[in-house]
Amino acid sequence: DTAVSQTPKYLVTQMGNDKSIKCEQNLGHDTMYWYKQDSKKFLKIMFSYNNKELIINETVPNRFSPKSPDKAHLNLHINSLELGDSAVYFCASSQAELAGNNEQFFGPGTRLTVL
Amino acid sequence: AQSVAQPEDQVNVAEGNPLTVKCTYSVSGNPYLFWYVQYPNRGLQFLLKYITGDNLVKGSYGFEAEFNKSQTSFHLKKPSALVSDSALYFCAVRDIESGYSTLTFGKGTMLLVSP
Prior knowledge:
The structure holds two protein chains of two kinds.
Chain A: E1 4-7, E2 10-13, E3 19-25, E4 31-37, E5 43-50, E6 53-57, E7 64-70, E8 73-78, E9 87-94, E10 105-106, E11 110-114
Parallel strand pairs in A: 2-11
Antiparallel strand pairs in A: 1-3, 3-8, 4-5, 4-9, 5-6, 7-8, 9-10, 9-11
Chain B: E1 3-5, E2 10-14, E3 19-21, E4 24-26, E5 31-38, E6 44-50, E7 56-58, E8 64-68, E9 73-78, E10 87-95, E11 104-105, E12 109-114
């Protein structure tokens, strides 16, 4: 059984387009995250939601908009894609973030290539 | 502020030999510390964590790590490396007193185990 799943796995698109990445977790976790991993494998938090509420919003361009329809899903919508958005995007989840000591479970990643 | 340093981009070790992947951290309070592993084209997998208690933490796949507060280190170790341990390893830290603070990841260390 897949714990954290993301679709699509690969996404190739032109500059200026709008695209979405979907994430679902079946672990019953309260908290979900989006990370960006660049070409040098550096991993940076973008957003975090706890029970559908945004709790962390790092300095990410407002072209990126997360949406959490329920606590098992956290989608990422990106408007007006730019070349610099090319990266691997990881979704993750954990039990309640408040404790701060819970490990995160990562999805397989979505490789976004902007041409 | 919180930060984590992995001073080695790559660690090479022969199969059967012990391995160490280094990590040092900086927090204003007390840390929660984590190690994750990333295999090629996969998401990160949790290995182990230090929250409180024993300084020596044991985790998945025979890995362990020792929390050293005076040296602000949390090095990952394994007594006998396997070729299948070859992967990218990330250390991560969260400052306990920071509430909803983010998890900060190091830049990663590539471990290569030769047959």
